[in-house]
């Protein structure tokens, strides 16, 4: 089996749980909106997304607050998708490496044996 590396957990990210205080407005002088999302683990981004959805469903304050939450939710959802796409690619790499190994069973043979 091929060794694959996992992305390290971001420092201090767990305390935030993906919500942050960023309003989503870009003044051009600070970091990009939702820049902190890029450092979140899958679980942190997912939990943050769940919290954003709950706040939106509860009727977050003003329209501006709702829009900021929506934008944050989009960024969190995209981060979750990055993690899922990365995991899918890592699995595909391992499967390709295993299939290419000498003496490897033809594709589908192991799946058929597991179903019996």
UniProtKB/TrEMBL annotation:
Catalytically driven reaction(s): Exonucleolytic cleavage in either 5'- to 3'- or 3'- to 5'-direction to yield nucleoside 5'-phosphates
Record field: transmembrane: none
Family: Belongs to the XseB family.
GO cellular component: cytosol; exodeoxyribonuclease VII complex
Summary of subunit composition and partner proteins: Heterooligomer composed of large and small subunits.
Name of the molecule in the record: Exodeoxyribonuclease 7 small subunit
UniProt organism field: Cellulomonas marina
Keyword Cytoplasm among UniProt keywords: yes
Region spans: Disordered: 1-40, 97-116
Biological process annotations from GO: DNA catabolic process
């Amino acid at each position: 089996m091929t060794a694959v590396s996992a992305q390290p957990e971001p420092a201090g990210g767990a305390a935030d749980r993906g919500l942050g205080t960023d309003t989503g407005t870009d003044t051009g002088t600070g970091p990009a909106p939702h820049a902190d999302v890029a450092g979140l683990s899958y679980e942190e981004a997912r939990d943050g997304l769940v919290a954003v959805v709950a706040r939106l469903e509860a009727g977050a304050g003003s329209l501006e607050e709702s829009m900021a939450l929506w934008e944050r939710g989009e960024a969190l959802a995209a981060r979750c998708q990055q993690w899922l796409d990365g995991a899918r690619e890592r699995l595909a790499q391992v499967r390709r490496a295993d299939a290419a190994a000498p003496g490897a069973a033809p594709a589908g043979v192991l799946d058929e044996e597991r179903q019996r």
